[in-house]
Every structure is written in structure tokens, then in C-alpha cells.
Amino acid sequence: MALHEIWPQAPLYTSVYDPKKAKWAKVFNVIPSWLQYIPFAKNHHQLLSLLTPHAFRKFDLSQYELVISITSAEAKTLSLPKNVKHICYCLTPTRYLWSQKANYEDLGLRGRILKISSPFSRMLDFSTATKINKIISISTYIEKQVYKYYLRESDVIFPPVEVTTEKEAIKPLINNYYLVVSRLVSYKRIDLAIKACEKLHRKLVVVGIGEEEASLKKLAGKHTVFAGHLTERELAGYYMHCKALLFPGLEDFGITPLEAQAYGKAVIAYGRGGVLDTIIDKETGLFFHNQNETSLIRAIMEFEKSTFDSKKCKINSEKFGKTNFKRQFKQYIEKYMNEN
């Protein structure tokens, strides 16, 4: 949406488009690919990952001077004339081909298909990355991943995080608790937060839903509360009244640590990934350096002996606001186009 505010006339090209699910996109002139006409594509587009690169390559973008792809997968596989510049805002190198290849290949039939097609798909993905004029990474962690997998230098512009803390929050009935706000999926490592808080006899509120919900509830004891899906006002209340946010997963960037800081709350986070950009260690949060229960317990105990300034947390979160992003991104694009 921030890019739409910079270039409101620019259309949005995408593989498939479901107006009901992507309501945010209604402000765009959305142009879907031929995959849109496959009956199940809107709801199961992930099954078409082998066809998606071809769909993006079939777009005729020759009328533009510049194309910006925003992607973690196939949207960068464009076929462009030499006079059309391509800048990729890279959310992450394609996970199922690189950093999480083994995990994806364990996913039943789709995994077996990915395993067979992987050598060709990796070659295409790497070749595509070499042809992009400029790559912008969303964090210094992704900058390193881009170099690791694509052998490309990239620049870093952090994505915008807008938190409206003035909304009328609904105060939760629970108090003196730690908070997790996340999809309940395995790589988020919510299990570590539950185990640590149960062992320390600390209250924990888990906000979110996902495929791991049942197994996490079995793991939880009397100190853990699952709040499920919340309204914005309810979530604001949980942020405002928590002791700190627990963030035990490895993320490419991570939005919730900045949301917590916007409410003046410190974050206890696993010290890898995007949080190294968004949290100031021992000032707006604490890092634990081994992704296990013991390391997190030590960090919680250290946090409880420390003092954190809520104003510093809020000031840090403001650096990642939409205004800064729009200014940086627009200046970057204008500078590149003027020089080329």
C-alpha cells in the first residue's frame, strides 16, 4: 500500500487475485495472469508453483520504464526487454528452493513434486536473480541470504510498520503476563515460549490461530492462555498491558516486535534474523542466543532484573514508519532511474 501511495497510477500484476481475500488490493488496477482461469487457483495457488514462473514471464510489460517486483518467490521471474528496468524488493530468497528446501520436500505429494523439479527450479530462480537490475532486501538478514543464494549484492530498505496506538483498547481480564502474537505454525517456535513460562510459573497469553494450535494446547499447562483471533482493539489491550513480547522464532523481518515497541513494550527475542535490525539489545529488548527453552528462561530472568524505558521503545518503532519508508524508497528509485 505504501508503494501505491507513491505511484497511485501503477497497476498491480499478480499470478491470481481473489478480491474477497485481498481486500487491500481494491485500490489497484489488478491484472492477474492466465492462472486466474484455472478453477481451483484462487484457493490453492501454492499447488501451481511450477507454473507460476511461466505465468509471470507471459506478462507483456514492454510499455513501462520500470517494473518493481515485491516477492518471496516467483514474481521476479519476469521476461523484460533490455530497456525496461527491473528492481526487486526481496522479502526472502524462494524458501522452498533454498533455506527451507528440506522442510518443503517433506510435505507429501507436493513435496515429492518439488524434489523432482528442484534442480530445474533452482537453476531458473538463480538465473532470474542474476538478470534483475537492482535488488532491495527487507533486512540485513535477507541481504545476507540474497548474497548466499544468489551471489548478488543488495541494498536494504526496511518495510513500513504502521501502528495506531491511539485506538480505544479493550483491557484484558488477565494481568502480569508475557505475550506471544503469532500464527501458530511450527517454525515460529511458540513451544519454547510455552515451555519456558510453564517452567517459570509465569503467565503467558498466546494470540493467534494456526495448524499447531491443538499440539500447543496439549503442551500448555495452567499458566498459558490461548486468546485466539482478536479484534484490533482487543489486541491493542493485550499489547498495552503485557510485561513483554516473547519472540522465539527466526524471522526475515518480523512485524510484531515493532508493534510491541510502539506500545512501549520491550521484546525478548531469539537473536537471529530481522530482530537484529528492529530491537536494540538491552535497550528496547533482550536477545537469547540459543533457540531452546533454557536460553529463553535465562533471558526472561534477566529481563525481570532489568529496567526498560517505554519511551525508547516507542522512539525506536517510529524509525520504521510508513513516512520514512516512502521517502527512502522513492529517493532510491529516482536516484537509480536518473543514473540509468
Automatic annotation (TrEMBL):
<dbReference type="InterPro" id="IPR001296">
    <property type="entry name" value="Glyco_trans_1"/>
</dbReference>
<protein>
    <submittedName>
        <fullName>Glycosyl transferase</fullName>
    </submittedName>
</protein>
<dbReference type="Pfam" id="PF00534">
    <property type="entry name" value="Glycos_transf_1"/>
</dbReference>
<keyword id="KW-0808">Transferase</keyword>
<feature type="domain" description="Glycosyl transferase family 1">
    <location>
        <begin position="174"/>
        <end position="319"/>
    </location>
</feature>
<dbReference type="GO" id="GO:0016757">
    <property type="term" value="F:glycosyltransferase activity"/>
</dbReference>
<dbReference type="InterPro" id="IPR050194">
    <property type="entry name" value="Glycosyltransferase_grp1"/>
</dbReference>
